[in-house]
Specification:
A four-stranded antiparallel sheet has the order 1-2-3-6, with helices on one face. The protein has a domain of 152 residues. It has 247 residues and is of the alpha+beta class. The two termini are 23 Å apart. It is extended and about 85 Å long.
Length: 247
């Protein structure tokens, strides 16, 4: 590791992605470089938040739906005494099962079919959600581990935001904590500042993290505004926070 690249591995170090020899050398560098030490602390905290973002919480209604479907699941039959005969439904005079028994069988079959469809849909949705979360975390980790990854932070009224930018990856990661809860119908939206022209960069998710949408390109800054749900093509409110992006 030469002097020119001595400051570069902070992102890879925070993700424990350096070989042992480079890790040891970078740790020696950290003892004498407060700027790199601060950057490593910020990237490590960001990586921890990204790990939490991968976890997929079950839908809020799943518990009640499961409890409701349990009532339709057939119980185990009672234990039979050896030698005892198994009770059989008494056929009516036409030789067919009583109508109530037949209706119950149809109801049970229909319920089992409904449970199977529901379980398949829930499993598919959970799988798709997990795949999206894994892809999102992988994209963010790629930016954090980029050799040229640099961070900038800002704060206002208890809210703190961190942006990690990689010009080589042409991407940026946003992470925030303490953002005030918004009223219904409102959302936080991010923007790239292209020399005074604001370009949409995505809506902030519930956990405050976001792989900013679009390429960084020549953006010199970013901003956060409060917009109607679904976002806006241009800011409709004054930015609650503005930050210059690392060169």
């Amino acid at each position: 590791m030469n002097e020119e690249h001595l400051h570069a591995p902070s992102g890879a170090y925070a993700l424990n992605a350096l070989p042992d020899d480079e890790r040891a050398e970078f740790e020696r560098h950290l003892r004498d470089c407060p700027a790199c030490a601060q950057e490593v602390r910020e990237l490590s905290a960001t990586a921890a938040r990204l790990g939490s973002a991968v976890a997929c919480a079950p839908p809020a209604a799943m518990k009640q739906r499961v409890l409701g479907e349990i009532t339709t699941v057939r119980q185990l039959p009672p234990a039979m005494v050896p030698g005892a005969s198994t009770p059989q439904p008494v056929p009516d005079r036409t030789g067919r099962m009583p109508r109530l028994v037949l209706a119950a069988c149809v109801a049970v079959a229909t319920a089992f079919g409904g449970v199977a469809v529901w379980q398949h849909q829930e499993a598919r949705q959970a799988g798709e959600q997990a795949q999206r979360a894994e892809q999102r975390a992988a994209d963010m980790a790629r930016v954090l581990a980029a050799p040229d990854a640099r961070t900038v932070t800002g704060s206002k009224d208890g809210a703190k935001a961190t942006v990690v930018v990689s010009r080589e990856e042409n991407s940026a990661v946003f992470l925030a904590s303490g953002l005030p809860e918004l009223p219904s119908g409102k959302t936080y939206q991010l923007w790239f500042d292209d020399g005074g022209t604001m370009r949409p960069a995505g809506l902030v998710s519930d956990d405050g993290s976001l792989m900013m949408e679009g390429d960084v390109d020549g953006a010199t800054g970013m901003g956060i505004t409060v917009e109607p749900a679904g976002g806006s093509p241009q800011p409709t409110t004054a930015p609650m926070m503005l930050m210059a992006l690392p060169a």
